[in-house]
Task: structure prediction
Amino acid sequence: MHFIEVLLPLSLAKTFTYSVSEAEYNYIQKGVRVAVPFGKNKIYTALVIDLHQIPPTLYEAKEIHQILDENPIVNEFQIAHWQWIASYYMCAIGDVYRGAMPSAFILESETIVSSQKENTIEVSELSDEEYLIYEALQQQSSLKVQDIMAILNKKNIFPVVQKLLHKNVLTLHEEIHEEYKPKLVRYIRLNEEYSNENKLVSLLDSLKGAKQKEVLMHYFQLQAVEKKPISVKHLTETAQTSAAIIKALIDKNIFEEYYLQHDRVNFDSNKTASNLQLSETQSKAYSEIIESFNTKEVSLLHGITSSGKTEIYTKLIEDYLAQGKQVLYLLPEIALTTQLVSRLTQHFGNEVAVFHSKYSNNERIEVWNQVLEKSDKAKIVIGARSALFLPFSNLGLVIIDEEHEPTFKQQDPAPRYHARDAAIVLAQAQKAKVLLGSATPSIETYFNAQSGKFGLISIKERFGKAPLPEVELVDLKESYFKKRMKGHFSMTLIEAIAEALSAGEQVILFQNRRGFSPVLECITCGHIPQCTSCNVSLTYHKFKNQLRCHYCGYSIAKPTKCHACSSVDITAKGFGTEQIELELAELFPTKNIKRMDQDTTRGKYSFEKLIDSFKNREIDILVGTQMLAKGLDFDNVTLVGIMNADTMLYHPDFRAFERSFQMMTQVSGRAGRADKRGKVIIQTYNVNHNIIQQVTHNDFDSMYKEQLYERLIYKYPPYFRLVKLTLKHKDFEKLKEGSMWLYQVLSQNLQIPVLGPEEPGINRIRNEYIRTIMVKIPQDGALVTPKKTIQKILNSFEAVAQYRSIKVTLNVDYY
Result:
């Protein structure tokens, strides 16, 4: 008897055993995918993680349907890393497998496929089975994998679907559709018969049209200079001719056309021959990093905003590429990859690959395979947190830029991992070094660096000795009292904007709320429209004239009268990016104003378009949410305005002060990055607040010491680890009872602080009430024992019949 142990892409904590024949047993390797039956009649793509000869005791092992790969597409490092993530973050290994793989790799019977509209498809190249599916998709817009089984009358259809995906006939439903570079590029060459000179001369004489002759001459020039295939596009551009003339030459058999396959993403054209020169400060930091890597696995580069950290990273990457190693460069936000990719590809050309969720399935699979084969095209992988799961086997260096960013933590769905911490574990397994970079490191990381667990390298001056921006505080209380306000702008801010614009400089305004205003209120009776399934007020979006819930997406048209008392006196309270944008348009009607928030950056290239046009100085003022605060580099921005600093300070979160400091410092750091000194204006009702004063003086150390002292007293990280349990149920009473039961059992069995069951500020989302319980595990104690206890208690909680329907999610290090 031969068996394989597989992972299924379902939220299941254990692996499953299937039986295979001896021939299959000898053929299958760890890390290949197999299609397996599971449940009554579903088929899933499972991953083989072990081969053995021990039959399962609790059930009869089923046979597999088929083997999907010849060679492993997942390596052993990954499987071990996934198991670590599952145990540390207390989630099912199946969740990790599903989260780690590009979705085109894990087809299941519920997957929906639809036809690819943009492509012209050569029907003659399809096999009979492929044609049947193609034909069915001409009749209806989409099919489930189960429907395809019925059409082909067989269970084993994954290979056919995979081939159609590969030929670009199908797309999977999860994708965002936007145009991308075509796979095939059209080239031309001179017909063979004109290879000898006499024929060529007579050809040139015989050509009647001057334009055709000119195109031919251009073709020879290009051929002489570039010595590589000439694409039709390249020739039309250089000869400044039309496609019709080239077509005429092809029709006369003078040119032959042919197609070459190109990678979807190609950066060769970006590469410029440049010699990287580090400044004295950068060189010093660079040699300190190399020195600290001799003794430490992880080092923190604490360099103030605009101190030139990217150049240091580039230099380090060069060193590791020279050793033939792979480099992973993690960024917190897709918006950032845009700028960084253009900077790194200038230096490394096509050795850079990019991986994040705005890329289509096919592009992601391409990068996955390149990393797996250790291809030259993916020596450096830049990506958001999911790039961590790529099949690296030869990792030399991991760079985690802006490591303090909360977006490195995955919140929903499971696995709820923190990319920074998971990357450090991955690097240790592959004996790679990790460099964390930030101008405002998180308190935990800085604590590790101060206590000697990590190396610490500091840069205290900006690149090119540019001065830090001057920070000016505007007291909103006083400005309103003295009537020095226009809308949400103080006169000070308006004057500063006008001054910057008249000098031809650009302005960034920061407001951490999207939409027009967070609340619509009836003046007569005080009624505020609420979401029907969440306990939150609806946000007003003027652009679409609707009220939207930012939690579940519920929306209604803007009411003309109050729903409660039918009064028509409705007013908008508070303000978001949309309102700022409209107020600016009234104040500066001739200027180009754009905003950058979740509503304006939904498409695949929307970030690039916005960032490029801002960099090319087409936009005068950019209004945005925290997307703006992260590592973007614009040399013409001299003024940054923070519309209201208080919204960040008073969040019910133990990191509110630390986050506010980071956010304000980072936003301020976008100003004056070139030769002119920047200016930052912070509007606040609370000028003397400690954090605001620390931002003004760029005083990271005193912020750190103050926050650390508070964390110690109140038992928070870095002194304690936090495990948050969130319970959800539609029935308020049942949830209350269940959460109390769970809390009592937890506090009896754990000799550590357990807090709760707490009702969060927003206590109902999508019709489910919410309660949270917090377990605080001391940093110096063992982590494994309390986690095992929590898991045991949860298992017994699920066994209690009346509580079985309560959903419990675990979030380790939830912050």
